[in-house]
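<given_protein>
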Amino acid sequence: MSDKTTFDRYLNDDGPAALVIREWLMPVEGTDAVVFPATFAAGDGFPGGYNIDPREGDTNVCLIDSVGSQGNRIEPLFKEEKYKHLVPQIVVTAGEKEVNLLEAGHRAGDAIIRCSSLKETIDEAFRASLNGNAEPLAKIAPTSLVFGVWNSRGEKGTQEKRPRLIASTIRAFNVRKLTRSAQYNPPLDYAALDVFSEEEKAKAEGDSKSPLAKRGFVHHPAPGTHGGVIATGGIKRDATLGLAALRLLFVDKDEEKTLALRRYILGLAMTAFTYKPGGYLRQGCLLVLNPDKAKENEFVEVYPNGDRKPATIKHDGAISYATATATAFGVGESKRVAFDKDRAKKDVTGDGNAKKSKKKGKKAETKSNAMGDK
């Protein structure tokens, strides 16, 4: 059983700045196999599709899984039986739908929490955090302190922003972009059966927006769509647990409570950091460790002067430490609350916070702060 003081050296100002994991991955089929990166919508000069920088040339970097997506994959582990004692289980019910806070995209800053009876509690926790006391937020949404949160849509005086302690990203290097084409052929000639006319059939074929094409009644080609990439330079996951950022957490000026808080959040962070999620990211992207590059992998403590020393933390040890520190800190109460439709309607209109203005006789549009991915 781990003691709550086991990793106090990580909490000292002269301790490591971060823990770092770097590991080489490959598609299950082999290093020369096609892998499908994440796709993104167009905007701000980006044409949409795969995120490859630079867009032209053989030397490039392709984003396989973003820091937000990696966080989304790891955080829900605290719902599992093995880990759920470490954090409060906050569940919002909306009819037959139940959503655990651990699944909410914006964590404690998510609309689903603002639109429940927990709104006042969360607002107060964010205010306290802004004033140097992160304990209330840790009592209701501790993973928001591990994976980061920005209450950008909260009312004035609650728009706290806490940095990610854990950042993990998967990238591929020197990729060759591929395309693929497909063709759908309906099992029957529906025009010949007088379901619609030959003229309607001819007009619909090749028109992806046609209702007949959308519903599978006509031939429909899909040429030149995303076909994945071949990573000639390999695929690597880089993950960081920022200990220097963890040491910025306080409970006012109470040194004893601050230490208990930091130990608790460190325990959660190390549990998440040493967790190995499944390699399935999406269709066509199932990754495993690359044994040929195992010697290049590292798990190290990185110090402010640049020194890198091997880290020896094991996942089971992290869980034991997290259990000890959670017990000492006192895990917040689990709650089941209802989604409030009336609160949601008010929130949609700004809940009275957004000021309407007029310009040249017309109402000026109110722009909300963008929150970014989880």
Remarks:
- Confidence is low (pLDDT under 50) at residues 354-374.
- Residues 176-228 form one domain.
